[in-house]
């Protein structure tokens, strides 16, 4: 079991590029697993309520203490299989039936730039055509354990490639959300269409669609972006602030 945990940890270390931006001091993932990275001399294995082969997200406060986490599990069926858990590892108030269907990069947490106690949880539909949705977590709810105050608000309504990404804006305050349109199940409709949203104190602003990189014919991928904007990998994107 310990060896499995180490192997999974290494996989996550290699695949997650923006953990500092998401305040990822504590990771909750897999089958009831979690890792605490607050100890600089080494990670500490602990437990979570996640039981999923799919997406898992978590966020800590600026002191490194767990705020909340979430996951989606296709084994439970349907496209509202997402759950959001509070720091006590109980389902958060209103945190059931969040959009998500058990893929691997279909959820991401973004702090609200206008409210230190509020967070967006974005979800994409890779198998089910719910497109891009978001829910809002308010940490003032339920006596400080948090509550989902808005759920499954739709921004897009078509299938997505499994590679949602949140990137901190160059101004150090705002965020970008970047997603890619899936050509599945329409063979021959390969595309290089990217959709981005600016998360700022004024809310969520849709940006013009960009056509960047090679044409894609699948619903799987991985998205990495560097701060300069002159390097790209896998999905061949090149966004700048």
Describe the protein's architecture and organization.
By secondary structure, the protein is mainly beta. The chain has a domain at 68-234. It is 6% helix and 41% strand. The chain is built from 1 helix and 17 strands. Strands 11, 12, 13, 14 and 15 form a 5-stranded antiparallel beta sheet that branches. Strands 7-8-9-10 form a 4-stranded antiparallel beta sheet, with no helix packed on it. A 3-stranded antiparallel beta sheet has the order 1-2-3, with no helix packed on it. The longest helix has 14 residues, at 2-15. It is globular, with a radius of gyration of 17 Å. Residues 1-22 and 231-241 have low confidence and may be disordered.
Give a short summary of the structure.
The chain has one helix and 17 strands.
User: What is the distance, rounded to the nearest whole angstrom, between the alpha carbons of the first and last residues?
Assistant: 43 Å
**Dominant shape:** globular
Q: Biggest sheet, open or closed, and with what strands and sense?
A: 5 strands, antiparallel
Low confidence ranges? 1-22, 231-241
Order of secondary-structure elements: HEEEEEEEEEEEEEEEEE
Give me the count of strands: 17
Per DSSP, what share of the residues sits in E-state strands of 2 or more residues? 35-45%
- What is the alpha-carbon Rg in Å? 17 Å
Helix coverage percent: under 10%
**Tally of separate helices:** 1
Mean pLDDT: 81
Structural class: mainly beta
């Amino acid at each position: 079991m310990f060896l499995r945990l180490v192997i999974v940890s290494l996989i996550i270390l290699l695949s997650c590029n923006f953990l500092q931006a998401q305040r990822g001091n504590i990771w909750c993932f897999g089958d009831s697993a979690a890792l605490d990275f607050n100890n600089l001399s080494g990670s500490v294995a602990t437990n979570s309520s996640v039981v999923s082969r799919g997406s898992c997200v978590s966020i800590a406060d600026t002191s490194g203490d767990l705020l909340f986490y979430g996951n989606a599990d296709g084994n439970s069926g349907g496209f509202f299989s997402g759950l959001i858990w509070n720091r006590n590892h109980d389902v958060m108030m209103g945190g059931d039936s969040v959009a998500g269907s058990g893929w691997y990069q279909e959820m991401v947490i973004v702090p609200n730039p206008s409210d230190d106690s509020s967070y967006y949880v974005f979800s994409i539909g890779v198998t089910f055509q719910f497109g891009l949705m978001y829910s809002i977590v308010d940490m003032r709810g339920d006596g400080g354990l948090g509550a989902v105050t808005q759920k499954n608000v739709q921004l897009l309504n078509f299938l997505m490639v499994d590679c949602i990404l949140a990137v901190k804006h160059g101004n150090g305050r705002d965020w970008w959300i970047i997603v890619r349109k899936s050509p599945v199940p329409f063979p021959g409709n390969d595309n290089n269409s990217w959709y981005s949203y600016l998360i700022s104190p004024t809310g969520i602003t849709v940006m013009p669609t960009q056509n960047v990189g090679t044409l894609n014919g699948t619903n799987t991928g991985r998205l990495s972006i560097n701060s300069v904007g002159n390097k790209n990998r896998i999905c061949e994107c090149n966004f700048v602030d």
